[in-house]
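Title: Prediction job returns without error message
Component: structure pipeline
Severity: low
Priority: P3
Assignee: unassigned

Description:
Job completed but the reporter wants confirmation the result is attached to the right record. Sequence as submitted:
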Amino acid sequence: WIRTEDKAHLKIGDIEPFSVFGTSATPGHKFLLVRSMDEKAVLTRFDIQDDKNLYYYDPFSSSVSNPRSLSELNDEQREIYEREKRNFQFAKQYRKFTGRDWIANYP
């Protein structure tokens, strides 16, 4: 979390691969996703918006500073990754249709 008053970076928690993390936030809050071994290595930044509940980080398609290859994944990890990608694609369509974020898993 980037504290507004002094821009200090405060650790909220750890996120394991293929997992989710939840926190309470309001519009205007800012969060950084950093490497656990190098907290200066920012992977992505999330700026909380009032009409958005879900924020994603995909190291295989959204990281310019830390490019990753799907060939790094074993079969089980690849299956989990593909399932999460399908869920993300469904969530985009769901939001387009309903105007709300999809906060479950599909299918």
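Comment from assignee: result matches the submitted record. The mean pLDDT is 86.
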